[in-house]
Structures are given as structure tokens and as C-alpha cells.
Specification:
Radius of gyration: 22 Å
Number of helices: 2
Number of domains: 1
Largest sheet: 5 strands, antiparallel
Structural class: alpha+beta
Strand order of the largest sheet: 2-1-3-4-5
Strand content: 15-25%
Shape: elongated
């Protein structure tokens, strides 16, 4: 009887010893899933932007004319922040992460974009405070817990 209790106690201690690593893995998987949701949301933002009807592309001004918003004028990556509930917070390129930001998403069009199709690199990192924006507009990923990067083709 004492031997059975001893074996049970050792097994229980072994299982309890694995709990911290299990919660760490679970937390990392949850953050990675949320980061992928942020990336999918950004991809949908880009793909749902205005498209020119067939035959209207010739009326566009220059090769950057159909790219979204101020990026077309500045040719500088956009940065968006998202809460832990995967909702956008703050404005585009706010300068520093809003207090409620958990994720940061960076969108950079890769050259050379064309009038009809462009390739965009989307990088999502967490925590947002650990990924400052560098002078070239990219994210500094040296102090983040994790990041996700994907490339998207955006038809204009």
C-alpha cells in the first residue's frame, strides 16, 4: 500500500511539473493564432480596397496610382496596431504603440509594383511594444515574443 502511494505521489509530481511548460505552449499557440487572424484581416483590408473597372486602368496617373492611401504617395510601409481581441486600435503609423495594443502589423509593398498587381509583405509581431518601427519603416523584431510573415498579391 505504501509503495502504491509512493508511486502515485511521484507520478503526480511529474504531471504537476509539466503544467508550466504546457501553459507556455498553449499561450504561444493562442498568440500565434491571433497573429494569423490579424494577418488575415490586414490581407482582407488590402484586397478589398478600390479596384479600377476593366478599361479604366489607362486613366490612372503613374505606376503607383492604384496603391492604397498615403503609401502610394510616400512609398513608406504602413503600421497598424491591434488589441488582444484582434481589433484595430490607434491610427495608421501613430509613432508609438497605443496602450491597448497587443499586436503590430506592418505592410510593405515590394518594388516594383505595377498598375494592376502588387506584392505586399505583411509582418505581424507581438507584443506590440517590443517591435518598434525602424527608420526605414520596417519592424525591429529582436525583442518580440513571436512574429508571422506572409506575402500577398494585391490586384488593383
Amino acid at each position: 500500500m505504501a509503495l502504491a502511494l509512493g508511486i502515485t505521489g511521484v507520478c503526480l509530481l511529474a504531471v504537476l511539473g509539466l503544467l508550466p511548460s504546457g501553459t507556455t505552449v498553449s499561450r504561444a499557440a493562442t498568440q500565434s493564432t491571433k497573429a494569423n487572424l490579424v494577418a488575415a484581416q490586414v490581407m482582407n483590408f488590402l484586397r478589398s480596397d478600390v479596384r479600377l473597372p476593366p478599361g479604366q486602368a489607362s486613366k490612372a496617373q503613374g505606376s503607383w496610382a492604384n496603391l492604397s492611401g498615403h503609401w502610394a504617395q510616400l512609398a513608406f510601409p504602413d503600421t497598424l496596431y491591434f488589441t488582444n481581441e484582434v481589433k484595430q486600435t490607434g491610427t495608421v503609423n501613430p509613432g508609438s504603440a497605443p496602450a491597448d495594443a497587443a499586436f503590430v502589423a506592418n505592410m510593405k509593398y515590394l518594388a516594383p509594383p505595377t498598375v494592376t498587381t502588387s506584392v505586399c509583405r505583411i509582418t505581424v509581431a507581438w507584443p506590440a511594444a517590443g517591435a518598434p518601427v525602424l527608420a526605414n519603416g520596417d519592424l525591429d523584431l529582436t525583442n518580440v515574443a513571436g512574429s508571422v510573415e506572409l506575402f500577398v498579391t494585391v490586384n488593383r
